[in-house]
Design goal:
This protein has 14 helices and eleven strands. The chain has a domain of 264 residues: Aspartate Aminotransferase, domain 2 (3-Layer(aba) Sandwich), CATH 3.40.640. The strands form two sheets. A seven-stranded mixed sheet has the order 1-7-6-5-4-2-3, sandwiched between helices. It is globular, with a radius of gyration of 23 Å. It is an alpha/beta fold. The longest helix has 36 residues.
């Protein structure tokens, strides 16, 4: 094997990356180039010959510079994006360099073992049952998909139907009981699974978006294959469904039903002694979905699925073929617990993040994000801005002047200003600004600077009305 120049392009990438990361604290938080400008920088005819790799790295870094959305900034509050801690980012670089195909133990022994270790740590952190199986997936979308596939398998098996062999044609009807303010990844997962969204029975919620147990109890009375989807962290308000009541009702009224918890960001509240009571009874569910690229601040993409019943999980996901090598000692093959065949070794950065932070460091991130969200809400409320939600986790929902047009103008003005970035939403039929504090590096100065920018943009928007 010939030697190749790795140092040139990798050194260029390191220097460009370090420059970008070190500049985040003062970098304007938002893209500055239009799509047309980016195409001009990056486009052109198909290259007809080789280009020096170092030059390629330099050119792409220069070409995308003004089109990057600095979601790793401590003043980025859009969607529910986390950043990346130094250890997790460095491990992710090594993951790319090692280039392991982490589907089989035989193909990537170290990756498989790291997943096992990280999985045990995660179960301890999140207070999940010891026998729980774990899959490392792309994000909460595929975590929800995987968990609901296991749920589909189990509720149909209890009804005398093998969905993996017989498919869905002629299968008993499944009802999915989910809160009226569930995340769209639940609907999308059910479409992927062939169940369709018509199987969803929306359950009434309270004024914060929490599922109402009394409304659930009524729907559980129908004795058909049933999956209950609870939510830990409403995407707008951060509200948490009453998990203990939901699990108790489900097990009491519909004993063959399956309870799944969509906890994309809210499941991490289990790490905090302060916030853990919000998740009382979480261990009684049958499956859980969350993201590592949110609260744990691991680089994209990194999601996690947990199943209290490993056999349905494995039955829904596993595959066997004559050419595949399954370890004779029964070592865990990651592809048995996720929908991918060839896959990135996502366990390395998750392992690195947990190892570097420890329980106390992860607790500090969870509690600081909550405290910073409260600080943001209190500052805006003190200055006359309507805060629409109870700030129970890291989400703040605000509205300006009880006016849709003004609210949308303020959101756009803040995004254009560049001090911070947050997204708009529609909640209960009204325009709102959604502020999500999910970055490990966000501190008081970031909040104060950002709140001042929001109030400044509001004052300008009001003068222009």
């Amino acid at each position: 094997m010939d030697k190749h120049d790795w140092e040139g392009p990798l050194t260029e990438a390191y220097e460009r990356a370090t420059h970008y990361l070190e500049g985040l604290p003062e970098r304007p938080v938002g893209p500055r180039a239009t799509a047309a400008e980016l195409r001009h920088e990056l486009g052109g005819p198909l290259p007809q010959g080789p280009t020096d790799p170092k030059e390629v790295v330099a050119d792409i870094a220069k070409g995308v510079e003004e089109g990057l959305l600095p979601s790793g900034s401590g003043r980025f509050f859009g969607f529910v994006f986390g950043g990346a801690t130094p250890a997790a980012l460095a491990a992710d670089w090594l993951t790319t360099a090692w280039d392991q195909n982490a589907g089989l133990y035989a193909a990537a022994p170290a990756a498989a073992v790291v997943e096992e270790v990280a999985a045990d740590w995660l179960k301890s952190l999140l207070n999940l049952p010891k026998q729980t199986s774990v899959g490392f997936v792309t994000g909460a979308q595929m975590a929800n998909f995987t968990a609901l596939a296991a749920a589909r398998h189990e509720v149909l098996k209890k009804a005398g139907w093998d969905v993996e062999k017989q498919g869905l044609i002629g299968a008993p009807t499944i009802r999915v009981l989910a809160g009226a303010e569930r995340h769209d990844t639940i609907d999308r997962a059910l479409r992927f699974l062939g169940l369709g969204t018509d199987c969803i029975v929306p359950i009434d919620v309270d004024d914060q978006g929490r599922m109402r147990p009394d409304a659930l109890a009524e729907e559980l009375k129908q004795q058909v294959p049933t999956i209950v989807c609870a939510q830990v962290g409403n995407v707008n308000t951060g509200a948490i469904d009453p998990i203990e009541e939901i699990c108790h009702l489900t097990k009491e009224v519909a004993k063959d039903a399956w309870v799944h918890v969509d906890g994309a960001f809210g499941l991490w509240a289990a790490v905090s002694p302060e916030l853990r009571p919000l998740l009382k009874g979480i261990e009684r569910a049958d499956s859980w979905a969350t993201d590592a690229h949110k609260t744990l601040n691991v680089p994209y993409d990194s999601g996690l699925v947990f199943c209290a019943h490993p056999e349905p999980h494995r039955a829904a996901m596993s595959v066997r073929a004559t050419y595949l090598i399954h370890d004779e000692n029964g070592q865990r093959d990651p592809l048995d617990f996720n929908p991918e065949f060839s896959r990135r070794a996502r366990g390395f950065p998750v392992y690195a993040a947990i190892r570097a932070l420890g329980r106390s460091g992860i607790t500090e991130i969870v509690e600081r994000c909550h405290a910073m969200a409260r600080r943001f809400a209190d500052t805006l409320a003190t200055n006359g801005v309507a805060v629409l939600n109870d700030v129970v986790l890291n989400q703040v929902l605000v509205r300006f002047g009880d006016d849709d047009e003004l609210t949308r103008r303020v959101v756009k003005a803040v995004q254009d200003d560049g001090t911070c970035w947050m997204s708009g939403t529609t909640w209960h039929g009204q325009a709102a600004m959604r502020i999500s504090v999910s970055n490990w590096s966000t501190d008081e100065s970031d909040i104060d600077r950002s709140a001042a920018a929001v109030l400044r943009c509001l004052a300008v928007a009001q003068r222009l009305r």
